């Protein structure tokens, strides 16, 4: 339970959690772009890599000029005083203007911006012009409720068009949004709201999940009991809940009433400095406290729009579907800002992939003629397990590009995705990036790159990535090491909200001058990058980041738990699953009921995604003499090397003897 060194896990362990690295490196299947794809690709000249490497700032300046509309041009492309970056210094810009207004100047005004499908089956299409009207009305409502440029607004909602409208309305008036994933608990909401002193919360009465109403407003109400900065709450009516949603007088306002009050009001987009804070997004790290990654405006738009266009080879008539929830960074960069800046048609789906049946995704693709699909390996493995008969029931021939993100993808899942979903004709782009990086940094260019299943291939043009050893020296091809980035990029996070020191320490001090990602990686003999998973105490469960310390804090806040340690264990579908080792206070019984109560408690404290899959009870936790929990040892135990893998009572004697053995070999 102490803040550890950022690198507390060995590369060997990282590799073993993603499995079979040696098998990976023997992967010999190759998928070059077809001649037709190459000929029609947005980027088809491999010289772009040399051009961008020779002049990275010039490369991004050109993208900024051609892709984004600026109210005022920049004086300098980049000011870099590591780790402080400022991009397009002196320029003025507005994200909502770029994602909406400017498309009204062309035929795109009546192009579908968002094609939305609710879980119960409703459909809504918002054209760019519709989006313009809605964003203006929401901006006017926010202003009437006292939100001004520079304020923070928290958004806690499911996957409905209003979440996008709310984000763009904030961006329009220069308020900084922080979207909190709809699965987080009341306590997680209040932690985030208080950390950034949000003034207003936008939420919904609830949402639909697997055929049932899930309450959201009630969770917000509980959170706000401890959030003194929040003055107003806007509530979208999503579920027409027949139970009365209690509205607090003077604080809560229904979204549809506020929108009606706005009428046809137009709110001029603020001319914002390029470095104006666009959003804060909280992500897990190696301590118990999530980090509020701050993203700013100009560079972020350039980075996301450029990579979205080139990596997904976006064409004007594509129907693009990113399945990520808007509550995560993938939703921010590749469902909202990148695609809308590019004037794309985006599909948005509210619910789960297995409702009403396990073919829902394939039915959505067939119904709307989706051409580009961007999803996570955990979803692909789930679909594989459900069986090819579900996609086989639908015509998926509209698809032309497949993307994956969030965790390493095993070659078997990659090949299944390509063959079964992509009919063996669609390039699969495996995209490596992070909440902190804002944009994709390692990925193929589908018109150029010969793909290898399981490899994210090469750094994007201008991105200088390296794999280094403990001393920061580049390791030879074929060897494993830590992934670092040696140059700034436009969509990079600028700092951690309210904690610039932590930002510097966490990312820029391990290898001075370089960004330390926290991932292990290897390059093969041809220079392809293979990501090996996290090398710190950060878990990746179903492509969601969860900090071991966060879960441990939640565990020890249960009255029965004296001490707790959490590790990730390999999981066929989720990538990693959470295993918790708990020692109980005197008088409590370590049985199945207790395990279930502890799991539920973590769900209450953080959210269902953080619930441990397994709870092991131990008399004590194995620690070093300096009282550091030996998670690696626990990992061995959990992987069945010592214990069985069911929720069960551990044999304290086994742990004690391992401890003894370990300390013996350590000294
Ligand atoms: C961590 C970042 C970026 C959006 C989703 C996750 C892992 C991400 C890949 C990939 C291997 C990947 C890394 C990274 N990761 N993409 N293509 N191959 N690993 O964002 O929650 O900030 O997590 O996800 O471990 O550090 P995030």
Question: How would you summarize the topology of this molecule?
Answer:
Elements: H1 11-18, H2 21-25, H3 35-40, H4 47-54, H5 56-67, E1 76-81, E2 84-89, E3 92-93, H6 95-99, E4 112-117, E5 123-127, H7 128-144, E6 152-156, H8 161-173, E7 176-179, H9 186-195, E8 200-204, E9 206-209, E10 212-215, H10 217-224, E11 232-236, E12 252-254, H11 255-262, E13 272-273, E14 277-283, E15 291-296, H12 298-311, E16 319-322, H13 329-341, E17 345-349, H14 360-368, E18 372-375, H15 377-386, H16 389-392, E19 401-405, H17 411-421, E20 428-431, E21 465-468, E22 480-485, E23 495-496, H18 500-508, E24 515-523, E25 529-534, E26 538-541, E27 544-547, H19 548-556, E28 561-571, E29 575-584, H20 592-605, E30 614-617, H21 631-641, H22 652-666
Parallel strand pairs: 4-17, 6-7, 6-8, 8-11, 11-12, 16-17, 16-18, 18-19, 19-20, 29-30
Antiparallel strand pairs: 1-2, 3-13, 4-5, 9-10, 14-15, 15-23, 21-22, 22-24, 24-25, 26-27, 28-29
Helix pairs in contact: 4-5, 5-12, 7-8, 7-11, 9-10, 12-13, 15-17
This protein binds 5'-O-[(S)-butoxy(hydroxy)phosphoryl]adenosine.
């Amino acid at each position: 339970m102490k803040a550890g060194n950022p690198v507390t896990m060995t590369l060997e362990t990282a590799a073993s959690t993603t499995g079979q690295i040696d098998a990976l490196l023997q992967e010999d299947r190759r998928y070059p772009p077809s001649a037709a794809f190459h000929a029609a690709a947005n980027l088809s000249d491999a010289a772009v890599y040399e051009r961008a490497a020779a002049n990275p700032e010039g490369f991004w300046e050109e993208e900024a000029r051609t892709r984004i509309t600026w109210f005022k041009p920049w004086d300098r492309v980049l000011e870099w005083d590591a780790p402080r970056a400022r991009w397009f210094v002196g320029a003025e810009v507005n994200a909502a203007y770029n994602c909406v207004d400017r498309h009204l100047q062309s035929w795109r005004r009546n192009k579908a911006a968002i094609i939305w499908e609710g879980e119960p089956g409703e459909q809504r299409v918002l054209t760019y012009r519709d989006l313009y009207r809605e964003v203006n009305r929401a901006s006017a409502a926010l202003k009437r409720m006292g939100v001004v440029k520079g304020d923070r607004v928290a958004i806690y909602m499911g996957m409905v068009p209003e979440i996008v409208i709310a984000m763009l309305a904030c961006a329009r008036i220069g308020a900084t949004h922080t979207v909190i994933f709809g699965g987080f608990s009341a306590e997680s909401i209040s932690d985030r709201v208080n950390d950034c002193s949000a003034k207003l919360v936008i939420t919904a009465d609830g949402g639909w999940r697997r055929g049932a109403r899930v309450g959201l407003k009630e969770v917000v109400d509980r959170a706000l009991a401890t959030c003194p900065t929040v003055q107003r709450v806007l509530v979208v009516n999503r579920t027409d809940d027949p139970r009365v949603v209690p509205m607090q007088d003077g604080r809560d306002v229904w979204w549809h009433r506020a929108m009606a009050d706005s009428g046809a009001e137009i709110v001029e987009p603020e001319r914002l400095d390029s470095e104006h804070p666009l959003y804060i997004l909280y992500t897990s790290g190696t301590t118990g406290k999530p980090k509020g990654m701050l993203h700013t405006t100009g560079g972020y738009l350039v980075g996301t729009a450029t990579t979205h266009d080139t990596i997904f080879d976006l064409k004007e008539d594509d129907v693009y579907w990113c399945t990520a929830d808007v509550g995560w960074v993938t939703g921010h960069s590749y469902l909202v800002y990148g695609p809308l800046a590019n004037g794309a048609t985006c599909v948005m789906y509210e619910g789960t992939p297995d409702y009403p049946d396990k073919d829902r995704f394939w039915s959505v693709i067939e119904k709307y003629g989706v051409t580009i699909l961007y999803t996570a390996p955990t979803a692909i493995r789930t679909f594989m397990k459900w069986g090819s008969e579900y996609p086989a029931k639908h015509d998926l021939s509209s698809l032309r590009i497949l993307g994956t993100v969030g965790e390493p993808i095993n070659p078997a899942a990659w090949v299944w995705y390509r063959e079964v979903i992509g009919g063996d004709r669609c390039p699969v782009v495996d995209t490596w990036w992070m909440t902190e990086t804002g944009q994709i940094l390692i990925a193929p260019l589908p018109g150029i790159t010969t793909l290898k299943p399981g490899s994210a291939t090469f750094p994007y043009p201008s991105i200088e990535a390296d794999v280094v050893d403990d001393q920061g020296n580049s390791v030879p091809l074929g060897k494993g090491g830590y992934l670092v980035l040696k140059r700034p990029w436009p969509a990079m996070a600028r700092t951690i909200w309210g904690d610039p020191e932590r930002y510097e320490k966490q990312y820029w001090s391990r290898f001075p001058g370089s960004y330390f990602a926290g991932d292990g990686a290897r390059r093969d003999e041809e220079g392809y990058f293979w990501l090996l998973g996290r090398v710190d105490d950060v878990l990746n469960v179903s492509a969601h980041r969860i900090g071991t310390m966060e879960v441990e804090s939640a565990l020890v806040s249960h009255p029965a738990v004296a001490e707790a340690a959490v590790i990730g264990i390999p999981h066929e579908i989720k990538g990693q699953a959470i295993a918790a080792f708990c020692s109980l206070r005197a008088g409590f019984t370590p049985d199945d009921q207790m395990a279930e109560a502890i799991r539920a408690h973590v769900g209450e404290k953080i959210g269902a995604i953080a619930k441990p899959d397994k709870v092991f009870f131990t008399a004590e936790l194995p620690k070093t003499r300096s009282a550091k929990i030996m998670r690696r040892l626990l990992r061995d135990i959990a992987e069945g090397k010592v214990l069985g893998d069911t929720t069960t009572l551990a044999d304290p004697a086994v742990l004690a003897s391992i401890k003894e053995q370990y300390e013996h070999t350590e000294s």
